[in-house]
Amino acid sequence: MSARHLNDGVPPAPVVCLHGVRKTYRLGAHVIPALQGVDLVVQRGELLALTGPSGSGKSTLLNLCGLIDTPDAGEIVLGGTAVQGLDEQARTLLRRDALGFVFQSFNLVPVMTVAENVDYPLFLAGVPAAERRERVAQQLAAVGLQAHAHHRPDALSGGQRQRVAIARALVKRPRLVIADEPTASLDSHTADQVLDLMRARGQAEGAAFVIATHDSRLTRRCDRVVALLDGRIQ
Fold first, then answer.
1. What is the pLDDT of residue 6?
2. I need a labelling partner for 78 at 20 to 30 A (CA). Which of 46, 101, 206, 222 fits?
3. CA dist list (Å): 73 to 100, 121, 135, 175, 218
């Protein structure tokens, strides 16, 4: 696994570190503990599966790693940057530069072509047009969809749409990709292909994947499985 490779005898810095992270939600008069003192380190190039029953804290942990939410206590360090204390603008810039997202429902823009969907994060980041075209072409070639660049998402199969989502997530060259049930709507063969693609692209790009899943096909082939129960790592 590339996350374990050493560079001149020095391990690469972790992609994300969580230490003593706690998060609660209030539902009326009730306080619900979503995460209770979670410690987690994710290495470069690692495919980490996050498992647990509904309500175990998986979605909360994804949201915290993805800078969509903030912890009540504890520390999160993403790509060497301590998240605590960052204002919203700094958090948005860090999220834009360091993170990619892959969803069960693909979340592609239906009125955009495949190439336009992959290009969109670069457009929002203000990347020059010539560089955007080059990077989009590289990513579509990497996921085997260059022949579909001008198709709309509804002309693609589920597996092809998930490949587009992976290309879109990686085109920014993020440190960490957050994936929420990325194989849940796919058949076994296509799910295997998607996981192979995530592993290959993660190793090529140096990105880590944190994958929330109930899919045993996926967990068996990840580098590490972290099980959550009642907001705690088991």
1. 45
2. 222
3. 25, 31, 38, 24, 31
Question: Torsions phi, psi of 62, nearest 5?
Answer: -60, -45
Q: Smallest Cα–Cα separation from 134: which of 122, 126, 151? A: 122
- Round to whole Å and give the CA distance between 13 and 122: 26
Q: Which amino acid is at 63?
A: N
Each domain of the chain, given as residue ranges in start order, spans: 43-68+87-233
Look-up: residue for tokens 């998402």?
153
Q: What is the pLDDT of residue 128?
A: 97
pLDDT in the model for residue 217:
84
- Specify the CATH number of the domain 43-68+87-233: 3.40.50.300
Burial of 193 (0-12, 13-18, 19+ CB in 10 A): middle
- Token pair for 95: 């999220």
Measure CA 7 to chain center.
Answer: 25
3-class secondary-structure state, position 157? coil
Token pair listed for 161? 């749409």
